[in-house]
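for the writeup, i need someone to sanity check this before i put it in the appendix. the sequnce is what the collaborator sent (i think, or maybe the updated version? ugh). structure was predicted straight from it, no edits. if anything looks off just tell me and ill rerun, i have time this weekend
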Amino acid sequence: MEYCGAGSVTDLVKKTKGNCFKEDWIAYICREVLRGLSHLHAHHVIHRDIKGQNVLLTENAEVKLVDFGVSAQLDRTIGRRNTFIGTPYWMAPEVIACDENPESTYDYRSDLWSLGITAIEMAEGAPPLCDMHPMRALFLIPRNPSPKLKSRKWSKKFLNFVDSCLVKNYTHRPVTETLLKHSFIRDMQNERQVRILLKDHLDRTRKKKGEKDETEYEYSGSEEEGDELNEDEGEPRSDIGLAGQIGTLPGWSPKGPTSPHPVEVHTGLKVAEVGPSQL
């Protein structure tokens, strides 16, 4: 299993000045995530939990998509799911609708909504509605207009890319291959230089001592409530242990294992196998 020593996008953005990445870093990371999703979607798999915490970086600034504990195989004929699952702030409206209406469905484009929210997370340091209780966010996401980047400092290409990911009606949302051809992704300048600068930033961040380890955004209003929602019967919760390792903990709860004995299960999945392009 590959070790991703630089940690997650969530970790890194919170340790970056201004709590935001440079635009070309965001374009590079989004492109690599899209390549991984293209591979998954081509094999009829929905990740269902795309967020900064599940996008890891190696020490060489390679991007790895992890945590497949809630992934779902699409029916090759129907190509849709109706299970309410994911992490609230990144969850697509059509996924939330499945909790309110059992007849509602969604497909792999729910991952692209989550990618749009992750792009905002990289640009602003946190997802939209992060200051609200998770259940309040679940109520508002399908009812509010699509989120937008707050600052106008970003390029029109980036603003349009986020808007394209966050189309409320998923049947009108672009597919993965279309987003890979979006000008924000396609026109990224000097990829080698982007990688070098990002790697330098990773190296500087790792050298800093005594920084608080921030692994995931948590609503501060209650320590009793978990962020993750999983209503697939019999389906294990998922959790990342060390960076680059994927573990499924069948007896896990927000307070720790429910079993009196520690549970540690490592899957055989290598994160390097996710995307067809690993630079």
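Residues 71-82, 212-279 have pLDDT under 50 and may be disordered. DSSP finds nine helices and eleven strands in the chain.
thx in advance!!
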